[in-house]
Write a structure and sequence with these properties.
With about 675 residues, this protein is α/β, with parallel strands linked by helices. It is built from 27 helices and 24 strands. It has a seven-stranded mixed sheet, sandwiched between helices. Strands 8-11-12-13-14-15 form a six-stranded parallel sheet. The protein has a three-stranded antiparallel sheet with strand order 21-22-23, with helices on both faces. α14 links the parallel β14 (about 340-350) and β15. α14 (about 355-370) crosses α19 (about 460-470). The radius of gyration is 29 Å and the shape is globular.
Length: about 675
């Protein structure tokens, strides 16, 4: 009996902050494994850990590792950023063993299938669209030595001719898909650092029904919205939690919330398990409402990614996104109130974008950040294969070295001389490495804005916002001023230099506006110092400092919570909230004592105005005094307290006042904290 051919699935190298097993390959493997043995190579781990290099020796090392597997078909998946690396490994495999059948699949390869086969003769075939059925048909045909002409959704070589077959329909019912082949991962511990929360992405469904000009995946899935059944999704989550100790899940779907009824059904199914799953997803701001947020939150949703793309209402129509931006702003405010972390992604540099459109985008991005949105992203436009942007502007593509620095989908991997030559010689397959210059302002401005604002919106968002609103400057003008204070090379624009440039500019800003913005800057600096948090990959947020000493088990005195106190001339927290809805408000100058308090058990920061006495107590404790010694000193210094009894009564009253303001840590709190293991 003839043995079925083996297929070996390969994920090429790229950089990432969060390494997860390749769920797309595990899903494909599960579909074909009942008929053909399957194995997997994943080079992301070895690349991230610097065990694999992108030079010729590294590519041959990867190829020889692949060829150790007795597989006739070597099937590569790839993102646009790692396409060149995948091709280099495939080339080495074909050179070392010409008998192997080199196959590519995925959105990027599918949209440049003919161009790829024309440019790279070592590639034998490319699957178009969803791969399950086509891959199985291909393997069956190779096993049975049958022609490939009758297999839908395939581009392949037939002698010297490149054949493209008719497209097949996408799968109607994802409920028929098998359970992913998680057993093919030999050592899941290699994906995760010891003691760190484990995160993985799993497929929740496919297909976004919208038609944005810059997006390729909606066309890849034929704009057909489909979800797996709640049982499928939860069964995968349960298995991964029990067997791999996964604690966080990214539910992969371009727009999970298109169907409110289906999302509610999923959330109810999750709740019925009684297991506290934590999960993340993607959505549009016009396919989610507050009610949906609340039942998603109840079911364990921790964060949602939104592509807003542009803050200009006219550009929303131009790029095909068609969001109502007032509704989008309301969505982000609601998410902050409900307690779901949000990511808002914006694109700058659209070909038809004017300076006014760009200003609207930067203003909205900053506003959304100040609503409480955890992450705001700024991405230069990329002309991806399969998009209207590329089709309309392919003749205007220009190669620019800054693309390798600021375009996130190209800066995740080293580019060798070999890849660089391919990129320059084959523009369409590697269009993501090219820029589309905007028609109404210089391309350089896109990179200056991305270089400055991407970091500063997160670290000094209040300062930027107050500077722009109070001075009346445009964001582009602020960027131009900051560029004058930064090195010529973008690669030297470190977070420290960016922050220092803004602080230096604010320090010299004249008049009452300068005084106000300096107060805002001091407030923001102190907020960041009071408690240091880290934003991890995939939405995880963690306090990265040590436990404050006042919570230590051996602390037996009532103490102040960790805090900072500021002497300001403006009520900064109130003014910043008002400026978000009333940009032309009047700023009153007065003596203002602001306490910034770190709530350790909740891992958050709160602000409050305090009276001069409380401010004095805080300052003395910050200076090294204990709370008890501080109150003793102040009572002794008090001119109207003449007896020990009066002084003790005064100290008791002050302690009651501090406790009512929730500023104290009692010894019992630290015991409770430790018992709960927080």
């Amino acid at each position: 009996m003839e043995v079925s051919p083996l297929i070996h699935l390969i994920r090429p190298p790229y950089s990432t902050d969060s390494i997860c097993p390749p769920i797309n390959l595990l899903a494909l493997a599960a579909y074909v494994e009942p008929y053909h043995p399957v194995s997997i190579s994943d080079f992301v781990i070895s690349y991230v850990r610097k065990e694999l290099t992108m030079d010729a020796a590294g590519m041959e090392q990867a190829a020889r590792q692949i060829l150790q597997h007795d597989a006739q078909v070597l099937a590569f998946t790839s993102m646009c950023s790692s396409y060149a690396a995948a091709l280099r490994i495939a080339e080495a495999c074909k050179r070392l063993d010409p008998s192997r059948f080199i196959l590519f699949g995925g959105p990027h390869a599918g949209f440049v299938a003919r161009e790829t086969l024309e440019a790279f003769d070592f590639v034998d075939a490319i699957v178009l669209g969803e791969g399950e059925e086509t891959l199985l048909d291909l393997l069956n045909a190779l096993r049975d030595k049958q022609t490939l002409h009758g297999i839908p959704s395939l581009v392949f070589r037939d002698g010297g001719e490149i054949i493209e077959t008719d497209r097949r329909k996408v799968l109607d019912d994802l409920g028929d898909l098998p359970f992913p082949a998680f057993h093919l991962i030999q050592n899941v511990d290699s994906y995760y650092e010891p003691g760190v929360d484990r995160f993985i992405e799993i497929e929740a469904g496919r297909g976004c029904p919208f038609n944005c000009k810059f997006c390729s995946t909606s066309l890849f899935f034929s704009r057909r919205y489909r979800l797996k059944t709640p049982k499928q999704i939860v069964d995968e989550m349960m298995w991964l939690k029990q067997n791999w100790n996964i604690t966080g899940f990214g539910l992969i779907h371009d727009n999970l919330t298109v169907r409110k009824d289906m999302v509610r059904e999923l959330c109810e199914y999750i709740n019925d398990t009684g297991v506290p799953f934590q999960w993340y997803c993607s959505s549009r701001t016009d396919t989610i409402d507050r009610e949906m947020m609340e039942f998603m939150k109840e079911a364990g949703c921790q964060g949602i990614f939104f592509g807003v793309e542009t803050g200009s209402q006219s550009m929303q129509k131009t790029v095909g996104k068609r969001l109502k931006l007032d509704r989008s702003r309301e969505t982000f405010r609601d998410l902050a109130e409900v307690g779901i972390d949000a990511t808002a992604s914006f694109i700058i540099g659209f070909p038809d974008e004017t300076l006014d459109d760009l200003e609207d985008t930067l203003s909205m991005a900053l506003e959304v950040r100040l609503y409480g949105t955890r992450d705001v992203q700024l991405h230069p436009i990329t002309a991806l294969p399969g998009t209207e942007i590329l089709n309309e502007h392919e003749d205007r593509l220009v190669f620019h070295e800054h693309v390798l620095t600021f375009h996130d989908i190209t800066s995740v991997i080293e580019i060798s001389d070999v890849e660089m030559e391919w990129i320059r010689n084959h523009r369409r397959p590697f269009s993501n490495f090219y820029a589309v210059p905007p028609l109404h302002y210089p391309m350089e401005l896109v990179y200056q804005i991305r270089g400055c604002y991407f970091h500063l919106m997160h670290e000094r968002g209040y300062t930027l916002y107050s500077l722009q609103k109070a001075s009346g400057m445009r964001h582009v003008e602020i960027v131009e001023q900051l560029v004058q204070l930064l090195p010529d090379s973008y690669r030297e624009w470190t977070p420290e230099r960016l922050t220092h440039a803004l602080e230096s500019y604010v320090a010299e800003f004249p008049g009452e506006v300068g005084a106000f913005v300096r107060d805002v800057l001091l407030y923001e600096q102190t907020m960041r110092k009071t408690a240091e948090f880290t934003d991890g990959a995939n939405g995880w947020i963690r306090y990265k400092g040590a436990m404050p000493e006042v919570y230590a088990a051996d602390n037996r005195e009532v103490s102040l919570k960790p805090l900072q106190v500021l002497e300001l001339s403006y009520d900064v927290p109130t003014l910043m909230k008002q400026m978000l809805v009333e940009p032309t408000l009047t700023r009153e100058i007065r003596e203002y004592h602001l306490a910034i308090v770190f709530e350790w058990e909740a891992h958050n920061v709160r602000t409050m105005e305090v009276d001069p006495l409380t401010a004095e107590i805080m300052n003395r404790v910050q200076g090294g005094s204990t709370l008890g010694a501080c109150l003793q000193e102040l009572s002794d210094e008090h001119p109207f307290l003449t007896s020990d009894e009066e002084r003790q009564t005064w100290r008791d009253e002050v302690m009651t006042h501090l406790d009512a303001a929730n500023l104290l840590v009692h010894p019992a709190s630290s015991s409770k904290h430790l018992v709960e293991g927080l």
